[in-house]
Structures are given as structure tokens and as C-alpha cells.
Amino acid sequence: QAQLMESGGASVQAGGSLSLSCVASGLSVSCMSWFRQAPGKERERVARIVSADSTSYADSVKGRFTISKDNAWNTLYLQMNSLKPEDTAMYYCAVYLGLVCTDDPGRYSYWGQGTQVTVSS
Q: What spatial distance separates the first Cα and last Cα of the chain, rounded to whole Å?
């Protein structure tokens, strides 16, 4: 049975760093993404990865966040630096099983339970 499990969320001060991890099991993966959702807001794609050379970031996190994975697609990472209060949200990893990776959360097949990131000013 496919499972995704995030970890690494915490409360930090602005300017700090966090590293999120997502362990995936039972899946054959070619596209994974990190999404986030703040209270009262829509779910937002933060970063996605198809391969080490194919990554994409939301404009709001470019230059501050880095997505990576291990070679076997068992673990997905999100390194978050220079955190801002507006980064506060529940962060989710998700798997897309289609042929062409997408930013549409409605098309992702598997989701983790989320990990909370809170950034205080």
C-alpha cells in the first residue's frame, strides 16, 4: 500500500532554516512535489522535481528553498532557508503518476498527512 510520510516541521524565527523530509513507500514515482496550505488559503505548489536536473519553484520561494530526492525516489527533501512569516503553513508532499508533471494539486494521486511549519517574526 502506497504511503507518504512527512517530517521536519517546526516553529522557527524569521531568517531561520528547516529541512523537511518525505518518505515514500509502495510507489513507482517520476514526479513529486511539495505543496503548502495556510489557513483560509488555497493549496499552493511550492516546488516539484522530476529529476535532479528538472526542478521548479514557486516565485515566492525561489532562491530560498531547494527540493531534492534520493536516487530511488524513496525520500523527498525540502531545504528551506531564510524563512519568512508568510511561509507559515502546513506542508505536504505529493506524488503525481501521470506522464507529464503538473502543478495542479487535483491531479496528484497520493498525499502525506502534512507537517506544520510556523515562522515567527
A: 41
